[in-house]
Amino acid sequence: MSSLIGYSLLRRLSVVPKELSAVILPVRNYRNRFIRPALYDFNQRQGKINKSKKLLNESEYSRRALFSDWNYDVELFALGARLRESFNFELVREALRDPTLYLVSMKEKIDLSLKDSEASYTRLVELGREVISASLNDFLTKTFPKVPSDGIIAFQEYLMSPYVLASKALHIGLKDLVVSQEYPPSKNTLSNAFCALIGAHSESGNNRRQSYQLVVDLVATQIIGMDLHDVWKIQNPMDYLSKILAENNMKEPEPRLQWASGKNTLLASYHVGIYSNQSLIGECTGESIETARDMAALDTLRRMFDTDLSKRDIFFHSNHVEPSSLES
After folding, report:
1. Closest to 97 (Cα-Cα) out of 228, 191, 196, 23
2. What are the phi and psi torsion angles at 152 (to 5°)?
3. pLDDT of amino acid 203
4. Which domains does the chain possess?
5. Which of 29, 95, 187, 325 could bridge to 200 as Cys pair (CB 3.0-4.6 Å)?
6. What does the record list as GO biological process (predicted)?
7. Phi and psi of 92, rounded to 5°?
8. pLDDT for 24 beyond 60
């Protein structure tokens, strides 16, 4: 103990010997002895609360609308401000009211000022799906002009899947704005609410170009950094490639083994190139000749359709779309 006191005194006087300056003294951080049992008790209590909620079929999450400082009108205004769009808030109220709303008891502090409008909600959902479908079709057709119709349909179906739409609804803050019996809202509830919101935007006096740009900004941007052929599953790539080459007046594809290594081992590697009219149009590597041939065919299709991540340029602004397709 005395040596430590002497060392600290020397440090203050800045006359620490060289042989002591290289010594690293251990430092121990002490916790009060009540911390561990307190944390253990907190976890036990939380476990009992969660278990009782499960037995009573109650959600582990609290509705934000039940808080005393909740203001639904302000939240709707903030939604429009976040999206930088103008909305008719009466339509937005209808769009965010799930039909299961009327099964919720009146004692909950949720805005129930509107009457039962299930028909209006269904109409907004259908209108929103039509707007999203038309906007995505315009965008994908202009962005990928070389991709055939079945590829465009595959991309569009992925972007309109409940998972993608629910994800976008969650990230723009619709989880607490959707009024429904269940909480948190399910994937289908969120996706329907997102479609209804787009329908409400279309009926709020906004023209086709504005609705198109909103859909592109929120939904179409999901293709950034994504391999589109993970969505568009092409069965029998060689047969499909032969069909595409025939439509473009090109000769049949000829797969050729360019090199191989590690044959008859676990690390076997084969490199196959696809030739047409004695020109290399695609190549790839695989663990077997069949796999390498199919991957080379997919690589050829990527080059022909300009869907390779390193080549395609995507413009998300409506100025890059023909005005005739966006007329209101």
Report:
1. 196
2. -60, -40
3. 78
4. 65-228 (1.10.1520.10), 234-305 (3.30.160.20)
5. 95
6. RNA processing
7. -65, -40
8. no
What would the two tokens of residue 217 be? 């900004």
Of 323, 315, 273, which Cα lies nearest the Cα of 297?
273
Helical H runs in 33-104?
35-55, 72-83, 89-95
Counts for the chain of helices (H) and strands (E), in that order = 12, 3
Output the CA–CA distances (angstroms, integers) from residue 314 to 21, 150, 254, 264, 321, in the order listed: 60, 20, 32, 43, 11
Cβ–Cβ < 8 Å for 198, 174: no
3-state secondary structure of 274: strand
| pLDDT at position 309 over 80 | no
Question: Tokens standing for 150?
Answer: 């079945």
Token pair, residue 1, equals 């103990």
Residues 232 and 156 sit within 8 Å (Cβ to Cβ): no
> What integer pLDDT is reported at residue 240 of this predicted model?
82
State the amino acid at position 144 in one-letter form. Answer: F
184: cis peptide before it, omega within 30°?
A: yes
Q: How far is CA 283 from the centre of its chain?
A: 31
Contact 112, 65 (CB under 8 A): no
Residue in the block written with tokens 């709707």: 76
- Tell me the pLDDT tens digit for each residue of 41-87: 999 888 877 776 666 555 666 777 777 778 888 888 888 888 888 78
Q: Report yes or no: 95 and 118 within 8 Å, Cβ to Cβ.
A: no
**Phi, psi (degrees; rounded to nearest 5) at 250:** -115, 160
- Helix, strand, coil percentages for the chain (3-state, nearest 5): 55, 10, 35
